[in-house]
Amino acid sequence: MSEHEKDFVGPVVTRGEISDAVAEAAEIDNEGRETRLEENAGYVRIEVQGECVIRFDTVSDVLGHRFTMSDLERNMPAFSGLIRVDSEQVRFLAVKK
């Protein structure tokens, strides 16, 4: 894996309505950063270069109803990077060595 590949971080979300909304929110909340999606049969890997921010309000707006960290946790079997959570957002950070 190249150093560039290690810079991509974000959640792996079970495929469905939540993964669609989180992927759309990732595009909105990380404007200007390279974002990529890896869609598989059962999950979607959402990756942003350097830092991936997912704001709960953005996901709520996309879904049309309230979205919280516990909703993400129930649908996120894995993630890459370091994770930081507060009441408004979750951030996935690349590990710098």
UniProtKB/TrEMBL annotation:
In terms of superkingdom, the source organism counts as: Bacteria
**Quick check: keyword Oxidoreductase in the entry?**
yes
List the molecular function annotations (GO) for this entry: monooxygenase activity
Q: Which UniProt keywords apply?
A: Monooxygenase, Oxidoreductase
SUPFAM superfamilies attached here? Monooxygenase (hydroxylase) regulatory protein
Its family remark reads: Belongs to the TmoD/XamoD family.
Would you tell me the protein name for this molecule?
Monooxygenase
| Record lineage | Bacteria, Pseudomonadati, Pseudomonadota, Alphaproteobacteria, Rhodospirillales
